[in-house]
Amino acid sequence: METKNPYKQTPCVLLFLLACLSLNAQKNCATCWGQNDTAVLKQNLSTEDKQALRLYSKLAWYDFSTYRLKGEGKRAVWIGYALAGILHGGREAYHAEPTVFEKRFNAAPLSFFGSEQWKRQYYNRIPEPRAHKPEIWNSARDYWHFSHTAGSTLWVSGAFVLGYSKQPLKYRLLDAAIAGIITSAFASTTYELLR
Predict the structure, then answer these.
(1) Is the pTM of this model over 0.85?
(2) Backbone phi, then psi, for 50, in 5-degree steps?
């Protein structure tokens, strides 16, 4: 029984690949090695296909000339991230000063926005371990829990939409950075306005 010798197999495989490549090579062919494929393809493509081809053609890492701020559901994502920022800013303002909504909007202490909103998690608003209401409705009883749940839902949904969009990775990363800036700006502004 003969053992396999890798020193004999490797040159044979390389010679086979070289022969295959040389058989496919053509003289004066601009498209055989992918040098000018887009010019040939553009002749028979629809307008949408041409736009997609332009969007996915190789760009330098610093070239963002085909980036679009709208489309692919981005407008809804920007609005969602702005709302998430507002919710987060309000939550942080409440965390820093629980009476912030009472001072700004004249909310009652035991209301959804009040300083004692946490008592709404208990039956008869009496904080006892056995009197706690079911956990499943926590986010609907007070602003603290609602803002966290709604903000997180908006962030995750927006990230899914941006990640699923049909655009190059660098554009998706730029969208994520813009979303972070929008959230941060709205959160900071809301915090400052409420405090």
Answers:
(1) no
(2) -65, -40
Render pLDDT for 73-115 as a digit per residue (tens, 0 to 9).
888 999 999 999 999 999 999 999 999 988 888 888 888 888 8
Alpha-carbon distance values, 20 to 8, 34, 138 (Å): 19, 17, 67
Strand partners, 132: 122
The most confident of 26-30, 53-57, 80-84, 110-114, by mean pLDDT: 80-84
Q: What is the DSSP string of 116-165?
A: TGGGGGBGGG---GGGBPPGGGHHHH-HHHHHHHHHHHHHHHHHHHHHHS
Say how far apart CA 64 and CA 170 lie, in whole Å.
9
Which pLDDT band, with edges at 50, 70 and 90, does 17 fall under? Answer: low
The 10 Å Cβ neighbour count of residue 182 is 20
Name the residue among 11, 174, 3, 190 with its Cα closest to residue 78.
174
Residue 146 phi/psi, 5° resolution?
Answer: -60, -45
